[in-house]
């Protein structure tokens, strides 16, 4: 009993820092496509310029990427120009460490070929540079370092022969570090994207879009898709809207329910633009307003549940020091969570070039305590993470234990040497108030001629 009181005091005494934006989010247009392309190309040039140094760091002399149109290497998507939509024919890229400005050689060297001309030239260039270790993307577990197709490996072995083939190595952290590392100038646009995400959440989870008793979770999911079209962004997964009840888990599909008063709503969705991706989960509450005593706020028990999930976010971010493995961060965070008397699960991941980006993961939904390979990688700085987790909280009004599921994107700040929320984090429920809707309809009716 004593322990219980202590625990509940501990939880309610922790006043979370205020990261919920005080002003409503605004829709902020991204630049026109032509300008986006020129901004993205500058980023790509700057990121690619880091590769020779990365090669040296990993003790390699070259990085050979070989692919065909429609069978691109995963890494291609982080290297290509903004106006390229695939690799043409066979596209061979050779990154090297020869930055001799006298030689004025491009880096990467690039061949687009479908008659086999590339091979003698590649052999000649390798003969000049004599790289001792040549990285190929052949990793078995890490997608970003494993994008070489089997046919490309076969042809490389045949055309380059034993001499060069013996120098092929798998060096997965080369690709991981290249993809994971973001530029300071990307953050400004990432923040605009995140504000748009919040503006969509605030509009979508409101009486403007939801009519309790009529709107379904599926309707809401498609509303988000259509809204993205209007905002000139796309997505990397179907928005999943669910009504949260005990023991419903994280269905990948969301639920197909009519949204009713008293429902706890949840969404998991992200947007894609300018080579960047977001991933956010928020919760909303549909006020009970049709009874004799209409609700004006979310019940305290739900606020408490959200606070627990917020506390879990702080625990993860506090433990997430660059250099530690994802598994170490996971273990330390789970221990701290248990010590603070909470139950929940952590499954956070890198984000950026991809919704699930290169780098160490901190838990997986099906691997709650330890993740082989991906969890053993080090947490890198200068990257973005999606802090994805849930805290359990018992809701007495429902006699149910609900998973309070949140996901928020953070960026490493060189200045503060900490992870900072890109736009903010949810600390207050989005509220759907059916009464506002009827008064809106009333005003519309009475102002009509
Ligand atoms: C989307 O693109 C169209 C066509 O260029 C433009 O008219 C519109 O203003 C854009 N909308 C936003 C929100 O950026
Ligand atoms: C991107 O465009 C530049 C300029 O046209 C070109 O030199 C470079 O090879 C292109 N990069 C890739 C990966 O195709
Ligand atoms: C760099 O490339 C130039 C031109 O191909 C060559 O002359 C030089 O020897 C190379 N240097 C190294 C260190 O590979
Ligand atoms: C609450 O739920 C538990 C388990 O589902 C059940 O045994 C109990 O009777 C319920 N309590 C009330 C007040 O409904």
UniProtKB/TrEMBL annotation:
<feature type="signal peptide">
    <location>
        <begin position="1"/>
        <end position="19"/>
    </location>
</feature>
<dbReference type="InterPro" id="IPR036005">
    <property type="entry name" value="Creatinase/aminopeptidase-like"/>
</dbReference>
<dbReference type="InterPro" id="IPR000994">
    <property type="entry name" value="Pept_M24"/>
</dbReference>
<dbReference type="Pfam" id="PF00557">
    <property type="entry name" value="Peptidase_M24"/>
</dbReference>
<protein>
    <recommendedName>
        <fullName>Peptidase M24 domain-containing protein</fullName>
    </recommendedName>
</protein>
<keyword id="KW-0732">Signal</keyword>
<feature type="domain" description="Peptidase M24">
    <location>
        <begin position="200"/>
        <end position="410"/>
    </location>
</feature>
């Amino acid at each position: 009993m004593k322990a219980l009181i202590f625990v509940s005091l501990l939880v309610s005494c922790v006043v979370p820092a205020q990261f919920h934006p005080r002003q409503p989010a605004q829709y902020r247009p991204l630049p026109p496509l032509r300008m986006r392309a020129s901004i993205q190309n500058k980023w790509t040039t700057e990121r690619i310029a880091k590769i020779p140094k990365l090669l040296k760091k990993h003790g390699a002399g070259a990085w050979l990427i070989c692919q065909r149109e429609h069978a691109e290497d995963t890494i291609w998507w982080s290297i290509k120009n903004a106006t390229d939509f695939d690799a043409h024919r066979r596209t061979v890229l050779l990154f090297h460490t020869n930055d001799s400005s006298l030689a004025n050689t491009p880096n990467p060297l690039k061949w687009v070929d479908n008659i086999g001309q590339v091979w003698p030239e590649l052999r000649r260039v390798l003969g000049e540079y004599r790289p001792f270790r040549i990285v190929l993307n052949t990793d078995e577990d890490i997608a970003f370092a494993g994008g070489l197709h089997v046919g490309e490996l076969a042809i490389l072995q045949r055309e380059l022969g034993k001499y060069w083939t013996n120098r092929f190595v798998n060096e997965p952290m080369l690709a991981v570090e290249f993809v994971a590392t973001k530029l300071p100038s990307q953050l400004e646009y990432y923040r605009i994207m995140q504000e748009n995400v919040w503006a969509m959440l605030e509009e979508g989870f409101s009486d403007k879009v939801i009519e309790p008793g009529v709107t379904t979770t599926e309707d809401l999911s498609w509303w988000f898709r259509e809204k993205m079209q209007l905002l000139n962004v796309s997505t990397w997964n179907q928005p999943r809207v669910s009504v949260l009840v005990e023991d419903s888990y994280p269905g990948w599909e969301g639920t197909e329910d009519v949204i009713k008063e008293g429902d706890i709503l949840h969404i998991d969705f992200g947007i894609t633009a300018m080579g960047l991706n977001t991933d956010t989960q928020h919760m909303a509450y549909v006020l009970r307003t049709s009874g004799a005593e209409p609700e004006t706020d979310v019940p305290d028990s739900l606020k408490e549940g959200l606070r627990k999930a917020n506390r879990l976010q702080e625990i993860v971010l506090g433990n997430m020091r660059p250099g530690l493995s994802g598994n170490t961060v996971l273990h330390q965070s789970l221990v701290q969570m248990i010590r603070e008397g909470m139950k929940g699960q952590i499954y956070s991941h890198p984000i950026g070039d991809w919704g699930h980006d290169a780098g160490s993961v901190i838990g997986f939904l099906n691997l709650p305590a330890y993740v082989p390979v991906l969890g053993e990688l080090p947490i890198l700085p200068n990257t973005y993470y999606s802090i994805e987790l849930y805290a359990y909280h018992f809701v007495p009004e429902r006699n149910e234990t609900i998973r309070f599921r949140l996901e928020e994107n953070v960026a490493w700040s060189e200045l503060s040497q900490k992870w900072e929320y890109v736009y903010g984090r949810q600390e207050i429920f989005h509220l759907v108030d059916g009464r506002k809707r009827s008064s809106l309809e009333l005003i519309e009716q009475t102002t009509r001629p």
